[in-house]
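Running this now, will post back.
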Amino acid sequence: MALDPETFEALIDTVRRFVAERLRPLEGAVEEADAIPADVLQEMRDMGLFGLSIAEEYGGLGLTMLEEAKVAIELGRTTPAFRSTFGTNVGIGSQGLVMAGNDAQKSAWLPKIASGEIITSFALTEPDIGSDSGAVKTRAVFDGQSYRLSGTKRYITNADKADLFTVMARTGDDPGARGVSAFLVPRDLAGVSIGEPEKKMGQKGAKVADVNFDDVIVPAENRLGAEGEGFKIAMRVLDRGRLHIAAVCVGVAERLIADCVAYATERKQFGKPIAEHQLIQAMIADSKTESLVARALVLETAAAKDAGKDVVMESAAAKYYASEMVGRVADRAVQIFGGAGYIADYGIERLYRDVRLFRIYEGTSQIQQIIIARETIKRGG
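Update: finished.
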């Protein structure tokens, strides 16, 4: 159920001020330290950001997809690492439980996820399994009472601080996606170990690492859904997550455009502000037009999802277009800033590096193209 308009506008205003007054001034420090300050994390918990998508009965805000997308756009106006801190709790780390969990599982975990007491993570990718996610090799063998889980997951967001993993593992002998099941795996189970965080191109402060499962005994009651339903659960989770990421891309693009306009109206060349030069105006116009298109697609698709419509294709299209769009906007921003855009002082080069990941995670642009084509053909055009 949607929040009443007054309450939602108050939330948006609070998030907008938090981003502008609290988070943006910390961007450089987060980049340098590769960490989010503990006091900022607590402020996020207090604001309810860890429970945006979780129902009110479990302590969350229970936002609709449209409301969540609008909040994500606001959060996109600062370094993506801040959103990533609670993003797995809002998205891929919790939504398998929200969509497929039973009442006991939801009651046990969702209140702590919504409050930020525990951090969640989504463990699908493996060392040699990325886009072909139905081919996972991590295996869970049922011994009559529990599952014995063994394998390695790679590039897992928030693995360094996660308390609960949603893990996709192969059960039984069915080939491909039919043999994949989903499990809730607490970090403190014997045999779970976390690798060193990877050094990355961008999004400093948001860590990814390997997660290793060495004959981990997972209680049967921790399985999400029936055996063999894991791949379907993962795809439903990713469909939703793609809309959220697309909304963040819109927010980053809007921030970059605002920064470009501010710089171009102050920077003078040939006796006048560069904003008055037509080739600069063309780059600003292209960026603004593309960001408006992405915003419209994201919000329209989010509203359709809330109405119960099938948005598999539209979500893929939103993620594909928005993630590619923000890459183009970031590239133009570096060009508009010129040499200053290549220097760390202005933060443009940081965002240029940050947004590159959007075209890869939660399904590469090429995977989105496959989904869009497949769904379009299935629908007959």
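Residues 210 and 257 are 36 Å apart (CA to CA). More later if anyone needs it.
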